[in-house]
Amino acid sequence: MGALNDRFLARGRPLGEARVLWEIGSDGCEVRTLRMRLELDSGQASRLLRSLEAAGLVRVASSSADRRVRVARLTRAGRAERALLDKRSDELAASLLDPLDDDQRDQLLGAMRVVERLLTAAAIEIRQVDANHPDARQCLRAYFAELDQRSDSGFDPAAGVSAEPHELTPPAGCFLIAYLRSEPVGCGAVKHHTRSPSHIKRMWVSQSARGLGIGRRVLSELEAQVLLSGATSARLDTNRALVEAIAMYRSAGYREVAPFNDEPFAHHWFEKRLRVRGAPL
Amino acid sequence: MGALNDRFLARGRPLGEARVLWEIGSDGCEVRTLRMRLELDSGQASRLLRSLEAAGLVRVASSSADRRVRVARLTRAGRAERALLDKRSDELAASLLDPLDDDQRDQLLGAMRVVERLLTAAAIEIRQVDANHPDARQCLRAYFAELDQRSDSGFDPAAGVSAEPHELTPPAGCFLIAYLRSEPVGCGAVKHHTRSPSHIKRMWVSQSARGLGIGRRVLSELEAQVLLSGATSARLDTNRALVEAIAMYRSAGYREVAPFNDEPFAHHWFEKRLRVRGAPL
DNA sequence: GCCATTAGCTGACTATTATCAGACAATGAC
DNA sequence: GTCATTGTCTGATAATAGTCAGCTAATGGC
Cα–Cα distance between B239 and B146 in angstroms, integer? Predict the structure, then answer.
């Protein structure tokens, strides 16, 4: 219920300052991300930070990696103040719920969770990006790490069927990222072949964003790309540890087929006919 | 989904003006109600109205009933502008929902309805008021009208057991109103007797506010009053047409008993023991 | 008629939020 | 090294929002 950005919670502090204080978080935050997330003008952000700095709640220092970038961190007092905002927000929520009985409270919280989940899902935006883009690399790192951790054999991206960036770049293929407010939370890629089905690769959804139907949406956009490339079918291989993914492939219309490659990491091979051969696009 | 009071919707107009424009509604609105609902300072409200008047969207005139009171009405242009705000808000909502599939949309709308309903329920405030208060009279008028309409015999408030204002005023009894943001949406009263159970009367919840548990809450506050008066039981009589009320009484622990009065309008008599006789309060 | 109250208006401020142009240093490509 | 770009800061200026005291006109009780 954190979205109650009322002036009431701001404790006599301008709402803008309270928002910044909140958004910095306990681990600090780059000023540019702060600006992006709060949609602040650069001048305004600077002034808000200056004012919070003057109040002793925040310290802003240059990043060591890139000295143009400034990083805002809460001081001890700032952390206390933020905790207080948190507490106030909780108290407000509690007082809102107070007149309800237990049943109604459970219902309300359940419904709010559903709303939040679905609004989050609705905020997901899928964009095609270059397979070399830092966001793409970040997704792949997370993907590989998860594969390595979940499969019993461990995963080596170098082994098996290749999916180098240039193979996932149009017209050879493409790479999609699912963004949640400019934060990458999932990806998927496809590699086209002449005369044989396109090959779906690198399907991944961040742990934090599962259950929102992101995988399904990425897959369906990849299928659209497959059709655009002229291919009529898509196929993919996957490890048996990825049970949710396998279930999703099945429910999206993929049928298990005999191994079509010798990917050592795969246990299941799937294929889906997207268009009858020779039918119009 | 009208609560999205984003600056985005305000169409280059200050948010405050847009809010006033919206709140005036198509039927016009007294300036004081406007101020109350939007929590505006009197000066600020005046200026906003002046500015909207200058833009030709609103006309403000004195009320004929009380010439101190001013009533704001939308002009033709104002109505058009308001419709546009409405449309924008709908479009925004639609674009938010756009990425979701039908199933998810249904889920989201269902959950939002639940949230709205329960937050409304949580905003209900029950206050003890004088039985002669205009709000009390308003409730009673609505209550009598509904009884008259729903019962097959028609209802005459003059007939049957009395419940005059003085009988519903402490210490003889009390009258409660359930307010939803200063709008009365339900009521209930109790009439105490020496040596016999208190008599619950005038239980009513406005059509528009049913299903929020208001009746149950009013009843339970009345029971608290009964205990405070020193009585140990509460009883009530009711017409067979009021099926929801009867179900609510039963589920609140009232048991049907033999008629304890000769109220001609009643078909069912209920009683509930609130405290063992002689037990401490 | 007298007087307290109510509803609203105006003037005088202050605070907050928003915009824009220009300055400056750091960075990275060449 | 040059140069375009990026990230931030400052000054100037508005627009919007919020507050307060004092004023007027109506109203209703007496």
Answer: 12
